[in-house]
Design brief:
With 461 residues, this protein is of the alpha/beta class. The radius of gyration is 25 Å and the shape is globular. Helix 10 crosses helix 15. The chain is 43% helix and 15% strand. The strands form two sheets. The protein has a seven-stranded parallel sheet with strand order 3-2-1-4-5-6-7, sandwiched between helices. A seven-stranded parallel sheet has the order 10-11-9-8-12-13-14. It has two domains: 188 residues, 3-Deoxy-D-manno-octulosonic-acid transferase, N-terminal domain (Rossmann fold); 196 residues, 3-Layer(aba) Sandwich (Rossmann fold).
Length: 461
């Protein structure tokens, strides 16, 4: 089947999907009105919300760009907006004359996008209909489109290519889990990627996988030229380091040095970590727990469990000691949001939440603060969690049985967790320079934001 036929079938499918979502949204409104909202599955509610936000705040209701405006369009599906933040900040510093249009697909990140300073327009991305993009481009007159990481829509790319809008895909990753590079979407995806002026990938493995996937299709229409793909790194490193460079002030009582911090913790994580901490031999590190969802009920339950099951004597909620001078604690439960990056700076070891549940949250903040990590088995969703298992602290091996210390270790149960943390605490006590070494390792991975700016400045010159 030719790319042209696939594209027409794709557009027909998008149109049908839009009709179904409109009907679903109307049906759910009726169910809510008659008091049956409890029977609606959460997934259906999110689908309906995806449709609703496009009707609630349509792009057509916004004032159009003026002829003299230099508009940069940035698209980030959802959490991919984190990769776009350092790009927007640097462009605001270096090119204050630019105006920014940001689109997103999922409603999850809507508020974060709307509240980000300096954005002129923000909307949910229109559905990928061929009739939309000509009007959209005429309305906003974008000088370039920057796509953060993923979310390459074939119809959108096709129309923007026809309109000669320069396009960049940045901080992108490709591998066996990239569903769009498998049948039946592979040919259409590669056709779209070929129309993007430059694809900036995180590392050489991404480039190799993408080009090998393209080589499997003999059709020249979908062949991807190697010069179009550039290894440029991950802009999130720039974002995390910018966050750490401007820390918030922590109340003195929250400053727990030599701590083991559990960031974005879930109950499943604490089922392993609590007993591991309780069974540690000798002096235990201070345990700082930052729940992913810090409800009052969950936080107070952790305090009670720490006292009754883990043998902790000095336990406190962060909100209860906020105004006190320094307090030595066994366990601190942080029932406040927005301080995790600062708390990492006092820690020696981190366990990032979700790794004993379904999928780990970001480990990058901990690593950037120089904190070694002990993770559970559910970490394969996170690239850094995999990569830093192969990054080893400096030092010579003195025995055939010695093992170099990795920045990230993986454990599977409480006993392995206890042993790993005890060993790490001992080693970090003997090698305090390892923290600075790890910070330098993370800093060496910066620069992806500058690569985006270099590309854009060439297109705007």
């Amino acid at each position: 089947m030719s790319v042209g036929v696939q594209l027409r079938l794709y557009w027909a499918t998008v149109g049908l999907t839009a009709i179904l979502l409109r009907g679903l949204s109307a049906t759910l409104r009726v169910l809510k009105a008659i008091g049956l909202s409890q029977i609606i599955a959460p997934g259906l509610l999110k689908l309906a919300e995806t449709w609703r936000i496009r009707g609630e705040k349509p792009w057509t209701s916004s004032p159009p760009a003026k002829s003299e405006d230099q508009v940069i369009w940035i698209h980030a599906a959802s959490g991919e907006f984190e990769y776009a933040k350092p790009v927007i900040r640097e462009l605001q510093k270096q090119r204050p004359e630019l105006k920014f249009l940001v689109t997103y697909f999922s409603p999850t990140y809507r508020r974060q996008v709307e509240n980000f300073p300096g954005i002129t327009w923000s909307f949910a991305l229109p559905f990928d209909s061929p009739r939309v993009w000509e009007k959209f481009v005429a309305h906003f007159r974008p000088q370039a489109l920057l796509i953060s990481r993923t979310d390459v829509w074939p119809g959108m790319i096709h129309r923007l290519s026809e309109a000669k809008v320069p396009m960049l895909l940045f901080s992108s990753t490709f591998g066996p889990a990239t569903a769009r590079l498998h049948r039946p979407a592979r040919r259409l995806t590669l056709h779209a990627l070929k129309q993007i002026d430059e694809i900036q990938v995180v590392d050489e493995a991404d480039k190799k996988y993408l080009l090998s996937a393209a080589a499997k299709i003999p059709d020249p229409v979908s062949q991807l030229e190697p010069w179009r793909v550039r290894v440029a790194g991950d802009t999130r490193y720039d974002q995390v380091l910018a966050r750490l460079a401007s820390p918030k002030a922590l109340p003195p009582a929250w400053r727990q040095s030599r701590s083991w911090i559990v960031g974005s913790a879930w109950a499943e994580d604490l089922e392993v970590i609590g007993p591991a901490w309780a069974s540690m031999r000798g002096e235990r590190p201070r345990l700082v727990i930052v729940p992913h969802e810090p409800s009052s009920q969950f936080c107070r339950a952790i305090v009670a469990q720490a006292r009754s099951s883990w043998g902790a004597q000095h336990v406190a909620l962060a909100s209860d000691i906020r105004d006190l001078p320094h307090v030595d604690l066994d366990v601190l439960v942080v029932d406040q949001v927005g301080f995790l990056a600062e708390l990492y700076r006092d820690a020696w070891i981190a366990t990032v939440g979700g790794s004993f549940r379904r999928s780990v949250h970001s480990v990058m903040e901990a690593l950037a603060a120089g904190v070694f990590c002990v993770l559970g088995p559910h970490h394969r969703n996170n690239r850094e969690a995999l990569d830093f298992q192969r990054v080893f602290a400096p030092g010579e091996l003195h025995d055939l049985h010695d093992r170099q210390q990795a920045a990230i270790e993986v454990v599977f149960n409480s006993e392995e967790c206890r042993a790993s943390v005890e060993k790490l605490m001992n080693q970090l006590g003997h090698h305090p320079h390892w923290r600075d070494w790890l910070i330098a390792e993370v800093n060496s991975r910066t620069g992806a934001t500058q690569a985006v700016l270099e590309w854009l400045n060439k297109k705007l010159s």
